[in-house]
Queue: 4 jobs
Job 1
Amino acid sequence: MGVSDKQNTLVGHRLISTKYPPIALFDDVASPEEFDMLYAIQSLTNPRLFDAVAPFTHINPNGGRFNDGLFGALYIASTDQTAAIEVKYHQQKYWQNIEGLAYDRFLFRNLLITHKPSPVYVVDSNDAEILNPDNYSASQQLARNLKKESYQAVEYSSVRSENGICWALFTPKPVCDVVQSYLLEMIWDGDKIAEVNKVQHMVDLSESEPS
């Protein structure tokens, strides 16, 4: 569709696994030009901002829809439902390739990410090549071109969540704030993700008073 200079601040959702501890911020920094921004974010008091820069410091070698193995992207969904559907699809695909993975329960933290990307490239919702559900070659090439043209993000329709909108941020610069909202559990039955539930009550025993 083309360029959009969004002036309004946006709030989206991102799910991150709670299974592993936070990673060191400066390990494998994506590119030298991002170093100053990553350092600035690290100096802020909100520890949840660390989660927002993780995709730029530890890059998935397999890439994603709008990033390849050479640069990262922060993926954000317009609603928590869209975020859950997207993560469920990718996690299920991943877990199905793990031999011997029987019943298990995985927890994810839902983060509310306030961001203001500008300029942002808006993908036409009818662009079947860029929005191919399984082949990311065209969308990754578009992302490489957009980065060269100094776009901060791309906005696109989710191919797995009806009416869902997603953003892929090429830089942490548009991130204004990150706030934790709730925990989500995904139940693996040995073949597929059988359940996705919000965790209503979670007791932190490490902070309990001794009896």
Job 2
Amino acid sequence: MKNEIDNLFNDKNILFSEDDIQLSITSLHIALKAYFSTYYCFKGLFDNVCYYNDSLENDIFKDIPKEYFLVELEHREYHKQYIECILHFQHFAELVCKGFLYDESKYLIYPCINKSEENSISESCLLKKYIDGNEDDIKNYESLLKKLVYLRNSVWHRGLEIYNYDTLDIFVGKYILPFVNNVLKHPKYKTSLHLWKYKDTPYDKDPLILILKHFKDEDYDRKKVALLKELCRATYNIPYWNNKMFWEINYAQNYAKLVEEQASIAAKGNYFPNSNGELKVLNCPVCNIKSLIIYEEVEFKYEYDENGMYPVDIEYSYPVEVKCECCSFELYRNDIEDVSKYEIEGINYW
């Protein structure tokens, strides 16, 4: 059996070798998608996350079990995204450091276990040489990498800990993303944009840059970051045909028409239309296709007879959810009540 397995994994079956950039960027891509999906795990039930995280700071909730706040299905989905996020950010960071080390010499030792050894280099020296930043930045990056290793081990080797939504949000937004951003400025990684970045979007401001700016300049706003993460998550789902080249050669038009027809059918087939008889369909702020359905809550007028109460007309309706049939962008009113205050162009539904 050992020989059979060894033969199966012989050198001729290696897909690529010594291409640390591609594999590290693949891990970055997976980690970012997982982080951006952490709001989507709780869509429509985000209030539960808010109440739970707020309860950690409020003694009046201390005797209420976690299960009261977190629905099991969403809880498990968050576990998956958390694990993907931590494992692959750590893998990205490790391969980055090893790649920089390899550039120094094939024979240097990593990590540096014995600083007195001749052929060794400290992590701080490596970071100082290859990543922009002052002394404080380098110290913070060293602490970040150690913490990432600890968190990776806690879920991968021991299965011990899953931290809550706010903790992961702040850890990634305030500490990991600035490190990633600095790494990607290095010439070695500048050409890898297409391997990890989502497609261009119709709105002017890049939501990932807005996340970085938020954690740098503002107090943490859980709902604003959730909105920005959802924009990023959905952008990864923009279809391959929805790009400038395919529109210019009239290739994308037929696909867009099919998606728009699908959205129109879904809107008309909804059981609870709005007061005008059908749901609105708007251009999506992510993919720019007219496939964003505005779902509404309906209040009926009722009449009574000897058989009881029955609806006779729609009294009024109001939007409660938006969902794109093309890229899957999705928001709920009870999750993020006032999206307009975040001043992101084209997003104001309630």
Job 3
Amino acid sequence: MRQSPYRISSLVLKVLTAVTALMFLSFFTIGYNRYYLEDTQFRAPLLTDVLLWFVGLLLAAAVAVTSWSVVVTLRRKGTYAAPQAGQVPLRPIHGGLVLFVVVAAAVTWLLGSSTPMAVNGETFTSAFWLRTADMFVGLCGLLAFAALAVVAFSSWLSLRKK
């Protein structure tokens, strides 16, 4: 019996949520108060490596599924009409969104600081990675602001129509 995509995605979401909750619960309850052997000012939770591998595995799976989806969509590109939601063409919206994220990432990387940082007594001087870290922080804030602005504008439009 073939499952619907909705049921499959719902099951995947529930399983991932349960596994993630279990991982973080285990992280904070099993060996969390262990001290770092070389410097007792720092904690070294027992399951840190397990949690980092889990996050890396989730990231790799997300990249793989996204890449597969892009390839499948590009292969089908010529075989179906441009998708629409009501009378709104989605292709220009998708293109604009991708362009916005790429331009925003480039701008936040260029504006990022490359000033060396001292973390846990170690100085980090790689300008590329310092700018990249700044880019992610700035991009998260910018995308959150953009999402709030879109929701506010959409709410305003729907209230105005009533």
Job 4
Amino acid sequence: MATVKRKIRIGAQPTKDVLEEIKSASKHKISYDKESPKLSKAQLQSFVPSNPEYFRPKKQQITLKLDADIIAAFKKTGKGYQTRMNAALRQSCPFLPQVRPSVQPKA
């Protein structure tokens, strides 16, 4: 099967022709070899991005009671205060990987 490359602008919808190509490509048999072996589900789940900037842990909504002055201090920093709170929590946990070094709490 030949490799077909298409450029689609961000936000643009693929054309019907492109959608048909994608559908037909899914019908072709995948061939595995020494350089591209078939991987188990566990092996696939163990993959992590080589660049931590692309790794985003799954978010989970919880209810958490914090001191009012802590919340006020973070809210004063403006939009994105919850992200900064998450980064501060992550930074304070030495056993967790620092996955998003570009997100640092504002002073």
